[in-house]
Amino acid sequence: MELTVKYSYVEQITPPRCRKPRPQRFDDGVAVLSIREVTAEQAPVAIIGREKNFETGEYLEPVSYCLFDGRLWTDSTVSGCTRRCSERYPAIGPELNLVKDSAMLSHTGLGIYVCVHDGKQGIAHYLQGLARDWLIIDGQLYRPAGEPMYVVMTFGLSGNHGGTALLTDDHLNPNIRREAYFSLLELDQAVTHTLLVAGKRGDTVKVSTDPGFQFQVLIPAAIQWKNPSAGADDTGQAA
Question: For residue 160, what are the domain limits?
Answer without folding.
Answer: 149-230
